[in-house]
Amino acid sequence: MSQTDQERHTDPTEWEWGKAYCSIVGHYCPNPPPAAPQPRSIFLAYSSENPIPDNMHRFQSRCPRLSATALSWETLRGTSSVIFCDVCAAMYSSEVTACEITDMNQNVLFEFGFALGKGRRTLLLRDVGSKEKRLQFLSDVREVRYENVDQIVSALGHSDPFQEPPLSASLLRSAIDADDPWSGRADRVRVLYVRGASRSEAAMSIQKSLDKAARHRKFDIRVDDPNEDFSHQLYYLYRLIHGSHIVIANLAPTPAKRRDEINARACLLSGIALALGKHVVMFQQTPADHLIDMQGILKEYANASQAEHLAKEALSLVSKVEESLSDTAARGASLARPRRALKRPIDRVAFGNAAAENESDQLAAYFLETPVYNAAINGSRTLFAGRRGSGKTATCLRHS
Fold first, then answer.
1. Does residue 30 sit in the same domain as residue 164?
2. 32, part of any domain
3. Which of 28, 46, 156, 219 is the most exposed place for a label (fewest CB within 10 A)?
4. Residues 161, 195: one domain?
5. Does some domain include residue 271?
6. Which of 334, 358, 380 is the C-terminal boundary of a domain?
7. Rounded to whole angstroms, what are the CA distances from 48 to 51, 85, 296?
8. 285 lies in the same domain as 361
9. Are residues 14 and 130 in the same domain?
10. Which range of residues forms the domain containing residue 238?
């Protein structure tokens, strides 16, 4: 990313419209640039589940107290044949995107991720009466918790959201300053797979198809597993997406444990990826939720055979990316990042990926063969028990 691109990204009014690839339309944005943001304007994203709309309607009526105006998805004119294009234009015409995430609605989290990726000022709203837990990886995002709408107005009156720098500015700096979490060759296609928690036959067929293709076609793949990586902070996840070429997300099906939380996270990460111009594909098992924002990138499957077919179809994107990276100079430039001088020695230390399966091809360079490992190799110990991060997966991968 050039310095010009960096500055354009961190300024919420200066992103060069139409210069980023959009997976929803399948090419570069065809729409004309929107008008400059209306001063002190808010775009409200919220679900249609009561009482959330009623609360947001009341908030809209009270915005004049903040010398502000609010626009919601309910008042969009629908000038585009693609619904999300209207949402995108509304975000650009507003200074702040406020997302009501009480029920962790997947469309709302997708829009929030997109707003973050595009450098918009963002704000989260949550009803304190909700039993839903806060998404841990959003702990760095400003959240206004409220019992009534007047509390939202009071909170925004004390801390003006129109004056705050967008969170994406610090996210982008982290992507530039920190070590690349991919830690692989820059000339290989990078695929990030955001896995749902399901261990169904269909979900496993997707995983196997991706792993097999990565070995045979020699591209790098990272797996974001909600069972292992749910504590990762937004800064790390942003860097992971920033360094990828393709992002594939498989949503958890209806019976899955923690389904709402897992899918909210997957939709937010997909929204960030879309905003950053990545190739984005999402999978969902039927019966499926009505995710209107994901029109064009969400594919449905009913069984393992259909899931495998969709995975192979999505991997056709690898060839497209490989073509764009075919020239050696282009490969070097595509992932080149300006780096600021790292002042502390600790900043130069790379601790590796949190999941051993994400760097199995590098284990030989740093794996330490301990007496416990030798006991496993000799067959005297065949049952592994240990805390997360103790080396169970690494031991199995090293021995395989």
1. yes
2. yes
3. 28
4. no
5. yes
6. 334
7. 8, 19, 22
8. no
9. yes
10. 190-334
Question: pLDDT (tens digit, 9 = 90+) per residue, 165-215?
Answer: 888 777 777 666 666 778 666 778 999 999 987 788 999 999 999 999 998
Q: Please report which residue ranges of the chain form alpha helices under DSSP H.
A: 3-10, 52-62, 83-92, 106-117, 149-158, 167-177, 201-217, 234-242, 259-275, 304-314, 316-324, 328-334, 363-366, 371-377, 392-399
User: Dihedral sign, CA of 356, 359, 361, 367?
Assistant: negative
- Tokens representing 130 are 């909700």
β-pair partners for 99: 45, 124
Q: What confidence tens digit (pLDDT) does each residue in 51-91 have?
A: 999 999 999 999 999 999 999 989 887 777 788 989 998 99
3-state helix, strand, coil in the chain (%, to 5): 45, 15, 40
Give whole-number Cα distances, 184 to 24, 188, 216, 359, 385, in Å: 29, 8, 17, 9, 30
Any idea what the CATH number is for the domain that residue 222 is in? 3.40.50.360
On the 0-12 / 13-18 / 19+ scale of CB atoms within 10 A, 53 is middle
Report which of 104, 99, 102 is spatially closest to residue 262, judged by C-alpha positions. 104
Q: Pick the closest to residue 41 from 98, 101, 88, 112 (CA basis).
A: 98
Total domain count, the chain: 3
